[in-house]
Amino acid sequence: MAEETNPDAEGMDADLADEWAAAMSEAGDDEGEGGDVDDEWAAAMSEQEVKPVQLEELGGASGMPALSSDMELIMDIPVTLSMELGSTEIAIRNLLQLTQGSVVELDRFAGEPLDVLVNGTLIAHGEVVVVNDRYGIRLTDVVSPSERIKRLK
């Protein structure tokens, strides 16, 4: 079972190999001529002028931070706000046995504050209120931005 070779394929492989060899030799020549690449980068970086960034002062008359025009672009983007009463882990066997009237125990005590989540990220805690026959939530504690960042890690 001898392998058949295609003479055209061999010619294309040889041409491709020649192109690669030429490209590799050019790359090798550039490294030899230009000296040390790190020195070139160091020289280019030393030519750059470094200026301190001026940050805008935050704060406005209403107590809310003043919004730049860039921030205005994102102000109408919708996010999902949800409240989490509690959670639990349950085996699939027990999940399949649930019927109407079944009670599932959650990991929270009665009267404990709910978690307020924005796109799945905890931002506050609150308590349930009823206003005009509709549920609502009264925020009792808002998580600081630095604490939110810590929880992401």
UniProtKB/TrEMBL annotation:
<feature type="compositionally biased region" description="Acidic residues">
    <location>
        <begin position="1"/>
        <end position="18"/>
    </location>
</feature>
<feature type="compositionally biased region" description="Acidic residues">
    <location>
        <begin position="27"/>
        <end position="37"/>
    </location>
</feature>
<dbReference type="GO" id="GO:0003774">
    <property type="term" value="F:cytoskeletal motor activity"/>
</dbReference>
<dbReference type="InterPro" id="IPR012826">
    <property type="entry name" value="FliN"/>
</dbReference>
<dbReference type="GO" id="GO:0009425">
    <property type="term" value="C:bacterial-type flagellum basal body"/>
</dbReference>
<keyword id="KW-0283">Flagellar rotation</keyword>
<dbReference type="InterPro" id="IPR036429">
    <property type="entry name" value="SpoA-like_sf"/>
</dbReference>
<dbReference type="GO" id="GO:0005886">
    <property type="term" value="C:plasma membrane"/>
</dbReference>
<keyword id="KW-1003">Cell membrane</keyword>
<comment type="function">
    <text>FliN is one of three proteins (FliG, FliN, FliM) that form the rotor-mounted switch complex (C ring), located at the base of the basal body. This complex interacts with the CheY and CheZ chemotaxis proteins, in addition to contacting components of the motor that determine the direction of flagellar rotation.</text>
</comment>
<keyword id="KW-0966">Cell projection</keyword>
<dbReference type="GO" id="GO:0071973">
    <property type="term" value="P:bacterial-type flagellum-dependent cell motility"/>
</dbReference>
<comment type="similarity">
    <text>Belongs to the FliN/MopA/SpaO family.</text>
</comment>
<protein>
    <recommendedName>
        <fullName>Flagellar motor switch protein FliN</fullName>
    </recommendedName>
</protein>
<feature type="domain" description="Flagellar motor switch protein FliN-like C-terminal">
    <location>
        <begin position="73"/>
        <end position="143"/>
    </location>
</feature>
<dbReference type="GO" id="GO:0006935">
    <property type="term" value="P:chemotaxis"/>
</dbReference>
<keyword id="KW-0282">Flagellum</keyword>
<keyword id="KW-0145">Chemotaxis</keyword>
<keyword id="KW-0472">Membrane</keyword>
<dbReference type="InterPro" id="IPR001543">
    <property type="entry name" value="FliN-like_C"/>
</dbReference>
<feature type="region of interest" description="Disordered">
    <location>
        <begin position="1"/>
        <end position="37"/>
    </location>
</feature>
<keyword id="KW-0969">Cilium</keyword>
<dbReference type="InterPro" id="IPR001172">
    <property type="entry name" value="FliN_T3SS_HrcQb"/>
</dbReference>
<dbReference type="InterPro" id="IPR051469">
    <property type="entry name" value="FliN/MopA/SpaO"/>
</dbReference>
<keyword id="KW-0975">Bacterial flagellum</keyword>
<dbReference type="Pfam" id="PF01052">
    <property type="entry name" value="FliMN_C"/>
</dbReference>
